[in-house]
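@channel sequence for tomorrow's demo:
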Amino acid sequence: MKNEPPLDTVEDLIGLTEEQIARDQRLMAEEAFAGPAPFANRYFLSQHGPVVRLSFMDQANLEHGPRFRSAVSLALHDAEELSGLLNRFITDAKAFLSGDLS
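structure tokens (generated this afternoon):
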């Protein structure tokens, strides 16, 4: 086994420069905010094997049923990541609303 230098930079680890990663993050943010954001107050989750489907609907009142808005299918590991992100955002939002910003 030959002596290899330690992997110290992001580029060493994943083969992308920090500038490339920053560019990709900017492009992802632009895409995330480019489309419509319809209101949703009803959700439906279903699971089939390793895939989770999350459907979004809205319902204005009890006289009218929910209207489908959108749905996404996620691999289980992506659904877990989304769950973690939502939990962190909700925890931060609750802390902000309660005035506990520590």
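heads up for whoever presents: The two ends are 49 Å apart (CA to CA).
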